[in-house]
UniProtKB/TrEMBL annotation:
<dbReference type="InterPro" id="IPR013783">
    <property type="entry name" value="Ig-like_fold"/>
</dbReference>
<keyword id="KW-0325">Glycoprotein</keyword>
<dbReference type="InterPro" id="IPR003987">
    <property type="entry name" value="ICAM_VCAM_N"/>
</dbReference>
<dbReference type="GO" id="GO:0050901">
    <property type="term" value="P:leukocyte tethering or rolling"/>
</dbReference>
<keyword id="KW-0393">Immunoglobulin domain</keyword>
<dbReference type="GO" id="GO:0098640">
    <property type="term" value="F:integrin binding involved in cell-matrix adhesion"/>
</dbReference>
<keyword id="KW-0812">Transmembrane</keyword>
<dbReference type="InterPro" id="IPR037413">
    <property type="entry name" value="MADCAM1"/>
</dbReference>
<dbReference type="GO" id="GO:2000403">
    <property type="term" value="P:positive regulation of lymphocyte migration"/>
</dbReference>
<keyword id="KW-1015">Disulfide bond</keyword>
<dbReference type="GO" id="GO:0034113">
    <property type="term" value="P:heterotypic cell-cell adhesion"/>
</dbReference>
<dbReference type="InterPro" id="IPR007110">
    <property type="entry name" value="Ig-like_dom"/>
</dbReference>
<feature type="signal peptide">
    <location>
        <begin position="1"/>
        <end position="28"/>
    </location>
</feature>
<feature type="domain" description="Ig-like">
    <location>
        <begin position="110"/>
        <end position="183"/>
    </location>
</feature>
<dbReference type="InterPro" id="IPR015169">
    <property type="entry name" value="Adhes-Ig-like"/>
</dbReference>
<dbReference type="Pfam" id="PF09085">
    <property type="entry name" value="Adhes-Ig_like"/>
</dbReference>
<keyword id="KW-0130">Cell adhesion</keyword>
C-alpha cells in the first residue's frame, strides 16, 4: 500500500507541504519507485487558503499534471527509463515559498530467466559451465546476481551487459563448476535482485546434477516472477 510521508519545508509550524505517493527515505531525499511500463501518481498538496501548489520544471514534461487550488498531481503512466529523475513541487502561501523534490526511480526485472549449461546435460563428477541470462533489466546500479549451490550462496557474480534501444540491459552471468561439485541431486540456482528504494528479487532457475537427461530437462523450466 502507498506510504504517506509528511514533510515540513520551513521553520514555521504551518503550513505543511505534503508529498503523497510511493515515497521512501524521506528523512533526507525522498524516493518513489515505479516498475518499467507501470504507473505512479505523485500528489503534492499545501493546505493553505489562497495558496498555490504546482509541479514544475522540464523534468515533469514526460508526465501529465492535474492541478487544484490546494494540490497538484503528477501522473506517470507507461513508465520508461527517461521518466526517472528528480521531480520538483513548488508551493506558495501568504507570500512564503516552499519547495520539495522527489527522486522517481524506474526499475525493470524480466518475467523469466534463461539458464544454459555446457555440456547440455549435467553429469555427476563432470565439470560444467552455467550461463544465467536475463533480458530487459534496469538499472545496472544496485543490480546483484547471486549463484547458489543448494542453500549455500556462492557470492555475487560478475555479469556482462548489452544496452537495448529501450535503455534497458540484457545481462549474462557465467559460473564455472568443478566436477567435484556436480553430484547426484546437487542444485545450482541464480537470483538477480535490484535495490531501487526497495529490493526486488527474481527467483532464479535451478540446474540439478542428475544422470538422467530427462530429469535434467524437467528442472530446466523457467520460473516466472510472482
Amino acid at each position: 500500500a502507498p506510504v504517506a510521508a509528511l514533510l515540513l519545508l520551513a521553520m514555521e509550524p504551518v503550513p505543511l507541504l505534503l508529498l503523497l505517493g510511493l515515497l521512501r527515505g524521506c528523512g533526507g531525499e525522498c524516493h518513489s519507485v515505479v516498475q518499467y511500463g507501470g504507473s505512479a501518481q505523485l500528489n503534492c498538496s499545501l493546505p493553505c487558503a489562497g495558496g498555490t501548489v504546482q509541479w514544475k520544471g522540464l523534468d515533469t514534461n514526460l508526465g501529465s499534471i492535474t492541478s487544484f487550488p490546494t494540490h497538484s498531481i503528477l501522473h506517470i503512466s507507461s513508465a520508461v527509463v527517461a521518466m526517472g529523475g528528480t521531480k520538483i513541487c513548488h508551493g506558495t502561501c501568504h507570500g512564503q515559498h516552499y519547495q520539495q523534490a522527489v527522486n522517481l526511480k524506474v526499475y525493470a526485472l524480466p518475467d523469466t530467466l534463461q539458464l544454459d549449461t555446457e555440456p547440455h546435460a549435467l553429469e555427476p563428477g563432470q565439470p560444467a559451465t552455467l550461463h544465467c541470462s536475463a533480458q530487459q533489466v534496469y538499472p545496472l546500479t544496485g543490480l546483484a546476481l547471486t549463484w547458489y549451490r543448494g542453500d549455500q550462496a556462492l557470492g555475487e557474480a560478475d555479469f556482462e551487459s548489452v544496452e537495448t534501444e529501450e535503455e534497458l540491459f540484457d545481462i549474462t552471468a557465467t559460473l564455472p563448476v568443478a566436477g567435484k561439485d556436480v553430484g547426484e541431486g546437487v542444485e545450482f540456482s541464480s537470483d538477480p535482485a535490484i535495490a531501487a528504494g526497495t529490493t526486488v528479487s527474481l527467483l532464479g532457475l535451478i540446474a540439478t546434477g542428475v544422470v538422467s537427461h530427462r530429469l535434467w530437462k524437467r528442472f530446466r523450466s523457467q520460473y516466472e516472477l510472482p
